[in-house]
Amino acid sequence: MRKSHPSDISREQFEVIRPLLESARKKACPQQVELYEVFCSVQYLLKNGPQWRAMPVDFPKWRTVHSYFTIWSEPREGDSLLEQALKNQVGAARKKLGRDACSTLSIVDAQSVENTDTAKSKGYDAGKPMLVT
Question: pTM for the full model?
Answer without folding.
Answer: 0.66
